[in-house]
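quick one
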Amino acid sequence: MCGIVAFTGTSPTVPVLLNGLRRLEYRGYDSAGLALQTGDGSLEIIKRAGKVAELEQILEETGKAHTSADDSGTKPALGEKDTPGAANTPFSQATTGIGHTRWATHGVPSEANAHPQHDCSGSIAVVHNGIIENYAILRAELQGRGHRFVSQTDTEVVAHLIEEEYAAAHEDLVLAVRATVARLSGSFALAVCHASEPGLLVVTRNDSPLVVGKTKTGAIAASDTPALIEYTREVYYLDDRDLAVLHENGTLHFFDPAGSAIVPTPVTIEWDLEDAERGGYPDFMLKEIHEQPRVVKDTIAGRYSAATGRISFEELALSPRELKHIERVIIVACGTSYHAGLIGRDLMETWARLPVETAVASEFRYRNPLVTPKTLVIAISQSGETADTLEAVKLARLAGAHVLAITNVVGSRITREANTVLYIKAHLEIAVAATKSFLAQVALLTLFALYLAQERGQLESGAVGEVYAAMEQLPRQIAGVLEDTASIISCASECGNAQTALFIGRGVGATICYEGALKLKEISYVHAEAFAAGEIKHGPIALINPEGLTDPQVQTPVVAMACKSATYDKMLSNIEEVLARGAKVIAVATAGDTRIAELTGHVIFIPEVPECLSPLVASVPLQLFARHIALMHGANVDQPRNLAKSVTVE
Ligand code: G6P
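structure w/ 6-O-phosphono-alpha-D-glucopyranose:
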């Protein structure tokens, strides 16, 4: 969704802002803009509907671009006066500014609605992520007092409020922002600059992420760490309604909502710049798919002791006694994380013999769910910022449940809301369609299910050790799938013209299908639905085009999970049923299976793994299958239309 970058220092800010905005592109957006202090008490705002590249082009064409993103510490020539913010500083040399990528909520994507937004005088510029829920009342009040609005955004009220508060606070921007924030409800991350406050930026947040750091030549703030990883690995996370003041000499001051100075603890970003780069791959999605052997290895590493035969989760803030007294587990999540939750549910129920439910987070809080202090709520979110999941977490906490968060992002909101946090080791995931984070979530949930069973006395250490030993083989097996993709590509090529595709499976195979169908629809825009194979005869089988019986060109593709499992024979019957109605069956099957090859010529073989671990291998060809079809359609696999990487609105 929206992205914020703000920089003040002694080096040009344009390259830092543009570079940061490019790094945030993966989150999904529809317009972009910058506001810079260009001296003589003025701000210059340049914004456009469209991509950051279009904004850059305008800057190039108007001579406002600065070509280097180097934050090397060398002070540039600033023209006649070399004081940042001094009179007549060219845009390209300005050293204080804010930038934004907008994902439209209030008002269409347009230049007027793009951020930065400004006050009546054009002296105050604001960029904002989130939604100001009381904006309509504030806007009416401000208009009543004579303020002129030029956009349809909720954000614009912030600029006008600061304008009023700045005058009331005797031109103290920090006080003005604090007073403004006190009047806002909803979610926001804000960065503010004022034409008459050279070298100064004020940032704040509520229910929307914001990180701050020092660089070699100044201070930087951003809504997400990829925007600042190039300049610093040590960052500060703000708590709700805290304020940070960034000075051009790199000094940072932090204040709580009451205005008292605070000293937050810095957090070191664990991943590298390499994670934010494509590293020779044509797209991030492919790179991230190929990282999966490493991700699974890192996520399971160190969790099992061969000496004791036990799994450990030392960070869990639940005693063995409390674990024994849990009566129920509810997993809440959205999208791909929800699918990981479905797999976790089956494993926990099977091994720990506990009732487990997986709920779509956006529905959970509206159905008056049964949550008690004896419920363990597991909230899964790659980003840790998904609003629906966070709301479910809040509800669970209010009901007295212990909330265990599984996330990929250190310092994300979910890590502050939950009682316990378990991190997957996926590192930064850039492609909107989740791949490596899904495998990491499933790997962690598998271990956690084993742990729960072990602690509740439902699984012997021998059985735990056996599963763990099989898990240790997974990185090699996943790598095997990635090395030999010919059958995946050829099956995908068979489906290039399809308007719709069905995915069928049984047991965990059905869940793998839900995720496979989601991948296909989100990146290729081909309609795809997944069904429990036993259910197709109750309706979905009607979707198969009977003309496929005589014309292979119009056959409806049916992707069938047909790996060796307890329901293998039944699955073969379901495959026969769809073949008999003219479907083109793409089967994912266990290496060495000869029966499947008698039914269809389109088979993707994967290594044999225990059924409980099959999602960790069988999901991989479906990711590549979806990607290949998307590429055949000319789609941007990293940034699919209409989607955002982290969805911070409900
Ligand atoms: C968005 C993304 C999905 C993701 C879902 C949940 O819709 O496009 O890929 O699965 O959010 O995200 P989370 O960060 O909570 O796992």
